[in-house]
# Entry
Amino acid sequence: MLDAKPKTGLILTGGGARAAYQVGVLAAIAQLRRDACTTGDNPFQVIAGTSAGSINAATLACQADDFCSAVDGLMYIWQNIHVDQVYAADSFGVIRTGAKWLSMISLGWALNRWRRTRPRSLLDNTPLRGLLSQWIRMDRLDDMLAQGHLDALAVTGSSYSSGQHVTFYQTHHQIDPWIRTQRLAVRAPRLSIEHLIASSAIPFIFPAEPLELAGEVEWFGDGSMRQTAPISPAVHLGAEKVLIIGAGRMHESGGEGNHGPVNTGHPSLAQIAGHAMSNIFLDSLAVDIERLKRINSTLALLPREARANTPLKPLEALVIAPSRPLDSLAAEHQGALPPAIRGLLRGVGVQGEGATASGSALVSYLLFEPEYTNELITLGMADTLARRAEIQQFFDWPAQAPQVDPATMRKRAGGFALQIPPHPPGPPRLVA
# Structure
C-alpha cells in the first residue's frame, strides 16, 4: 500500500500592499504546476493567512476547486488595484481621519471634551470592506471544505481588548482548539469578511474591528501583532509540510539604510513607524523559521526510538521571500500616491522619491497602486522561478519544464475568471 502524500500547508504573512509579492509567487507556482501537467486537486490542503495575507488566503480557499482561476483572479486584482479601493484617499476623507488624528496629537488638550472628534485611525478603510465583499465569495468556503477541496482555513487577529493573539479557523475535520501562552485558537462556524478586515487592520493606520470571542465582543487589529509562532496554525490544522511566502526579506532592517545615503539626523515619525512595522510583520516569521530549523536538526540527532517517543515531528518547510528590500521599490513609486495622501504622509516625515526618499518603509505598506504592485508581482515570479528545482522537489513535480519569462507571464495572466468593470465605477468580482 502506497503512503498517502503529506498534507501541504500554505502560510501567507502580512504587510499591506506588500502582499502583492505573494501573488507573484503563487502565479509562478501555478505556472510550474501547469508545466508539470498537474491540474488535479488544490495543492494546499491547509491555508493560513495573517494581515493582508489573510485576504489572499481566503481568496484561494473560497476557490479551492480551481487553484489556477483563483490565482488569476488575484493577479488581476493586484495588478489593477488603486489606493481609493482600500482607504479613503480624497481630501475630504483625509481631513476626516488623518488630519484630524494629527490635530488630536497636537491639540488634544483642547479637543478632549468633544469625543466625536476623536478619530480611530490615520486612514479610513471603509472602501476595503466594499471591495472584499464583492471580491471574495466567503459563502463558498463551507462547500469547498465539505467537498474536500480544502481541509482548513485559518485567519489570525490580535485582540486589543484582552491582549490575546487569536487564530480563527474553519474546517469540517475534528480539530480541537489549542491554547498557548497569550495565543489561542477558536473554531469559527463561518469565517467572514469581518475576520479579514480585523486581521488586516494595521495598527494606528486602520481602525480596529469588533469580533465575537467566547460570547463577548472584542476589538481586533492586525494579526501580525504579538504573533510569536506564525507557522503554528498550519501545523495544528494538520499540515505536514509548509510553503511560507513572506512579505519582506527575513532580515530586513526596516530602516532607510536599504537604499541611498544613511540619514544621520533624528529619525522622523515615518522612519520609526517603518521600523516598528518591520518588527511586527517580519521579525516573528524569521524567528519562527529559525526555531523550526533547530527542532528539525535536534530531531535528526535522536535515535529512531527516541523520535518515536516525542510529540515533536520534523516539518519540511520551503520559504520564499523577496530578494530585495521592498521599501526601495516603494521609494521609486511614492509619487503614485494621491496628492492628499502624500500631503498627509509628509506630515509624519515621508519625503522625496527614489534614492533620496525618506520614510519609504512606511509607504511600502500603503502604496496600493499598479506602478508598485506590478513590480512586486514580477519580483515574486522571478524569485520563485529562480528556485524552480526546489519547488518541483517540494511538490514532487517532474523536473522537466520549459523556461518561463515573468514579464510575459504577468501580462498573460488574469481576466478570464472575472467580470471586470473599469476603474473607478466599482471593484471587480470573482465568479464561481
